[in-house]
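hiii so um. not sure if this is the right channel but i have a protein structure encoded as tokens and i wanna go backwards to a sequence. like what aa goes where. can anyone help
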């Protein structure tokens, strides 16, 4: 009987893949055609309704019932003209996916006949029977009610004849059960704090939005091979597999020519993305074999987050048409790079100014400096919480390795900004500035754009790097929703801007001139946040030592990192700005622990099964072949036997050794699981899994990978790394 592996390889060799079916139209001719955006709203809604929706969005206000009814009518009409038959509230529960439950517009009439309907109340709010989403104890199943409610600031769209309405998801008692609710709250808080600070510089600023440009990395694997790897199917990563002789060491994949099959896949999903208004701009090969990246033009953070989760869903769907599987896991393969999702973050005003881009005049540059320094200070004060926000079981395989920023938060500013910060720190003192000093500082600040333009220094080893006109949070994992890190960054910067305003106002009250007051506070923050600045190599051991001596807290243990969510400082931060309350944080903490624990539990079961049912039987089969061979040698060459069979006998012993260890470790691992499963407290149980179950995964893998090198290739049941990492 052939193994799944050989069936898969055989299937691949016979496969005749059809070419991409993408159209040749200009992208601009169909961009956003499946989105109920402002332009469509203008066309489908009465003028006054359109205007009140717009104002509600601008001012983060509720939309009243009457208006909602008319929006529903317009939306239904628009959607049905485009062939939609169903509608759904589309939301992002606390796992790494999106949720939807489709209902038909169609309504049968009592006594015969039917019609299509969609009312305002259905648009605004729904009560999905959603007791099975992670909720961290916020909803007991007997009180399973959760509500989804329309988020008018993210436009509705059509997928597969279904009108999808971006929504938040909250418990009956009001607590958030999703990522979007706290994200929206953090954005509203940030808006207010940032506008207040902007008022020092420009009275026309009435709204500030956070912008997000994500970069999504992913792997592709042939579907047939994927289906022959139970570990990939069930855990998203390979739990075993010896590294291939050649993988990324020749650096020949990064930005290389994109294989045709892959570019067909890309064109296909890009077309769907464009129809949905996702402004994808770049695509390229990444470092590891079969690793790729795509990135859009940045957008308002809330929409960018929706677009990222939406795109991940589309990519999964489109991949199967090309007989590919997309792997969003942060570390699907040992020994080659993992995948991240860089989050480029900045702030934009209603006047069209990017607050993290140096301006043209000293005045705009002081504004830039204020936002720059406040962001840096926020990272200094809440860096550990930022790292906790991206800590997960899957991301932990990637962080701190030599491909991803380490688990300690530091800020890279670039040499130009570094020099400017240092000079401000030295120049401005608490006493009044002399006119000469003032001129010098202004000249200095006035020079920022010029210098930055020539500045090409980039530091890829920093988790939070300033890249000229934005900060780039690089520690985010590829499978994660972008919202958790953004929620923390937004809240921390909000806090910081609020403090900044209070301190500047206090100085102004003491008759310090506004400009000078601002510079003095900036200088104070530069001093106070100095520890978080690091321009060197974040992957080096010196940095680990240096960071420790600076008192920067790293994250070396994921379940420990989760505790950061419950420290008094974190709770105070998030409660103060109305982002998440203690109950919600406790719930998130439990969900994070539970997810972590379950992932380790599943991996542990899968490796146990594979070891017992695939690997050990295969090893024994091969061992028996060797034993037969040795017996034969003995029969035919009784005199030379010892010499001739020496190597075979050694190999037989080696196999026996590895099998013995695999068996022993698997049994111990199962015992450890049993022990910790009996512990009631979820955080304790998770910690137990982390320290006593998880290490076995590597131990067992070690022996399996050794066996892979020994056993006859014809017998080996699982596709090997060299096969998985080829696009055929
Ligand atoms: P790199 O790989 O050098 O970081 P990419 O072009 O792959 O560059 O990605 C840069 C990302 O940063 C893009 O998604 C881009 O839209 C985003 N970006 C640029 N300016 C801003 C901004 N002001 N706010 C948020 N994101 C931004
Ligand atoms: Mg980047």
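sure thing!! here u go:
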């Amino acid at each position: 009987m052939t193994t799944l592996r050989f069936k898969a390889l055989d299937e691949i060799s016979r496969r005749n893949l059809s070419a991409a079916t993408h159209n040749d139209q200009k992208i601009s001719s169909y961009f956003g055609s499946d989105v109920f955006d402002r332009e469509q709203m203008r066309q489908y809604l009465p003028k006054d309704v359109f205007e009140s929706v717009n104002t509600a969005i601008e001012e983060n206000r509720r939309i009243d019932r009457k208006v909602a009814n008319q929006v529903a009518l317009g939306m239904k009409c628009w959607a049905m003209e485009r062939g939609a038959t169903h509608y759904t509230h589309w939301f992002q529960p606390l796992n790494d996916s999106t949720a939807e439950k489709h209902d038909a517009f169609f309504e049968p009439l009592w006594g015969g006949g039917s019609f299509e309907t969609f009312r305002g109340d259905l648009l605004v709010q729904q009560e999905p029977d959603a007791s099975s989403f992670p909720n961290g104890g916020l909803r007991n199943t007997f009180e399973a009610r959760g509500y989804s409610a329309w988020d008018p600031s993210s436009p509705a769209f059509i997928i597969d004849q279904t009108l999808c309405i971006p929504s938040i998801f909250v418990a009956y008692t009001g607590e958030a059960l999703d990522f979007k609710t706290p994200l929206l709250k953090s954005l509203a808080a940030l808006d207010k704090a940032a506008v207040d600070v902007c008022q020092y510089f420009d009275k026309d600023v009435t709204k500030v939005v956070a912008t997000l440009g994500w970069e999504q990395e992913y792997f592709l694997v042939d579907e047939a091979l994927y289906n022959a790897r139970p570990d990939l199917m069930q855990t998203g990563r390979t739990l075993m597999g010896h590294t291939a002789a050649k993988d990324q060491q020749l650096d020949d994949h990064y930005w290389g020519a994109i294989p045709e099959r892959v570019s067909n896949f890309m064109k296909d999903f890009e077309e769907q993305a464009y129809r949905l208004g996702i402004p994808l701009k770049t695509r390229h090969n990444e470092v590891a074999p079969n690793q790729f990246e795509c990135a859009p033009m940045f957008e308002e953070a809330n929409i960018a987050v929706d677009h990222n989760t939406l795109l991940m869903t589309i990519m999964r769907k489109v991949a199967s048409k090309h007989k590919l599987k997309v792997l969003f896991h942060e570390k699907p393969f040992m020994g080659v790079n993992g995948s991240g999702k860089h989050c480029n973050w900045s702030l934009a005003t209603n006047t069209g100014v990017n607050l993290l881009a140096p301006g043209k005049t000293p005045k705009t540059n002081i504004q830039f400096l204020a936002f720059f320094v406040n962001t840096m200070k926020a990272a200094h004060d809440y860096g550990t919480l930022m790292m906790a926000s991206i800590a997960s079981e899957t991301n932990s395989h990637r962080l701190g390795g030599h491909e991803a920023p380490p688990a300690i938060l530091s800020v890279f500013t670039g040499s130009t900004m570094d020099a400017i910060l240092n000079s401000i720190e030295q120049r401005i003192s608490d006493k009044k500035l002399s006119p000469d000093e003032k001129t010098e500082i202004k000249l200095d600040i006035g020079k920022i754009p010029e210098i930055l333009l020539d500045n090409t220094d980039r530091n890829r080893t920093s988790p939070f790097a300033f890249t000229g006109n934005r900060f780039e949070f690089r520690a985010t994992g590829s499978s994660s929703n972008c919202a958790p890190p953004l929620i923390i960054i937004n809240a921390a910067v909000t806090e910081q801007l609020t403090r900044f305003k209070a301190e500047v106002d206090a100085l102004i009250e003491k008759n310090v001139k506004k400009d000078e007051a601002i510079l003095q506070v900036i200088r104070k923050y530069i001093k106070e946040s100095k520890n978080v600045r690091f321009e060197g190599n974040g992957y080096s051991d010196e940095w680990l030592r240096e960071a420790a001596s600076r008192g920067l807290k790293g994250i070396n243990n994921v379940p420990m990192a989760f505790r950061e969510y419950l420290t008094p400082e974190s709770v105070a931060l998030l409660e103060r700005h109305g982002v998440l309350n203690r109950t919600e944080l406790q719930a998130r903490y439990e969900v994070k622990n539970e997810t972590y624990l379950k992932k380790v539990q599943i991996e542990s079961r899968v490796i146990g099964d594979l070891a017992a049912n695939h690997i050990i039987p295969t090893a024994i089969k091969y061992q028996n072949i060797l034993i037969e061979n040795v017996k034969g040698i003995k029969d035919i060459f009784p005199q030379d036997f010892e010499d001739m069979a020496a190597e075979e006998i050694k190999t037989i012993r080696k196999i026996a050794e590895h099998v013995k260890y695999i068996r022993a470790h698997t049994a111990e691992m199962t015992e450890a699981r049993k022990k910790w499963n009996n512990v009631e407290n979820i955080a304790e149980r998770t910690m137990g899994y982390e320290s006593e179950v998880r290490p076995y995964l590597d131990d067992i893998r070690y022996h399996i990978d050794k066996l892979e090198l020994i056993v006859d290739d014809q017998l080996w049941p699982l596709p090997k790394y060299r096969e998985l990492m080829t696009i055929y």
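oh and The CA atoms of residues 380 and 652 lie 57 Å apart.
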